[in-house]
Amino acid sequence: MIQAIESIRREVVVPVAKQTAFEVFTSRMTDWWPSDHHIGSAPIEQIVLEPREGGRWYTRHEDASETSTGYVAAWEPPDRLVVTWQIGADWRYDPSLVTTIEIRFEEEAPARTRVRLEHRDLERFGPEAERMRQMFEGPGAWNATLAAYSAAFGGAR
After folding, report:
1. Strand, coil or helix: what is 130?
2. Domain annotation covers residue 157
């Protein structure tokens, strides 16, 4: 039996309405995603999150190559998004690896939204699970990603 690994949970509050927070997260990912957070050999041209359940999540690079990240498991604007993370411990796309990232958008006020991210199913990394959890837990992973997202609105509140 595989032992469950604790999920990574992060959150940030952004100074915009929930609908805007969802739209920026999903349709403007290229604008805020950290440019060094990708698996391609060329710089990012565009990060694409197809806006539907079953849609692809991938990166198109400046050399016209594409790298897959996963797919959209749930598309519930403006409340919730669930995507898969299918990048292995070797930083290559692995279609047989499926970890899950759920993002919830919770209105705190008309122009204030709490964005909660949970990356779970980390035990699916197998022998590399604890190392990957520690990496995702570190300051350069989801912390940096949500900080970059928050900066798109002028910083965290």
Report:
1. helix
2. no
In a domain, 101, yes or no: yes
Mean per-residue pLDDT over the chain, rounded: 92
Specify which residues 102 forms β-bridges with.
Answer: 82, 118
- Identify the pLDDT of residue 3: 75
- Reduced to 3 DSSP states, what percent helix, strand and coil does the chain have, rounded to the nearest 5? 25, 35, 40
pLDDT tens for 22-78 read: 999 999 999 999 877 667 778 889 999 999 999 999 999 999 999 999 999 999 999
List the CATH number of the domain containing 55. Answer: 3.30.530.20
Total of domains in the chain: 1
How far is it, in rounded angstroms, from Cα 142 to Cα 19?
A: 22
Cβ atoms of residues 102 and 115 within 8 Å: no
133 within domain boundaries: yes
Q: Is residue 1 part of a domain?
A: no
* Residue 67 confidence (pLDDT): 92
Q: Are 125 and 97 in contact (CB under 8 A)?
A: yes
Please give the Cα distance from 5 to 15 (Å, whole number). Answer: 33
pLDDT at residue 49 in the model: 97
Question: What is the rounded CA–CA span in Å between residue 48 and residue 42?
Answer: 16
